[in-house]
Amino acid sequence: MNCAKCGAEILEDEVYEHAGETLCEDCYLDVKASPKVCDPWAVYTAKKEAKGRPALTPLQERIVALLKQKGPISLEEICQELGIDEVEFKSNFAPLRHMELARAVKVGKEVKYTTF
Ligand SMILES: [Zn+2]
User: Fold this and answer.
1) FRET label pair with 101: which of 3, 44, 75, 92, CA 20 to 30 Å apart?
2) pTM (2 d.p.)
3) CB neighbours (10 Å) of residue 54?
4) 55 CA distance to ligand 1 centroid (A)?
């Protein structure tokens, strides 16, 4: 028997059912833990990758370090601190968001960025 999500082979006593699908324990817990995630597959994949070797680029590591140190911090401040532009930040922020290392928060009317 194989997991309907990740395709991993599942032992009979580790089979989980969710919404008519047969899932392995990992995928089942993912589904249960994050029912409202927009793209569970991306989160799942990113988490798996994060568990193995850290897949962060040097810039992503700098972003995480900055958010840890100064977050919640605005996009402007991040770009200023790291010398990058908005497009560069957003393309690097997406994988960090999926790995649950960084997230956006609302502070008043402003969107700021911080760590989990
Ligand atoms: Zn699975």
Assistant:
1) 3
2) 0.54
3) 12
4) 21
CATH 1.10.10.10, domain 58-115, yes or no = yes
Alpha-helix runs per DSSP H in the chain: 25-33, 40-51, 58-70, 75-82, 86-98
- Specify whether the CB–CB gap between 7 and 62 falls below 8 A: no
For residue 2, report the distance from its CA to the centre of ligand 1, in Å.
8
Residues 58-78: tens digit of each pLDDT: 899 999 999 999 999 999 999
Torsion of CA 62, 64, 66, 67, to 10 degrees: 160
How far does residue 96's CA lie from ligand 1's centre (Å)? 22
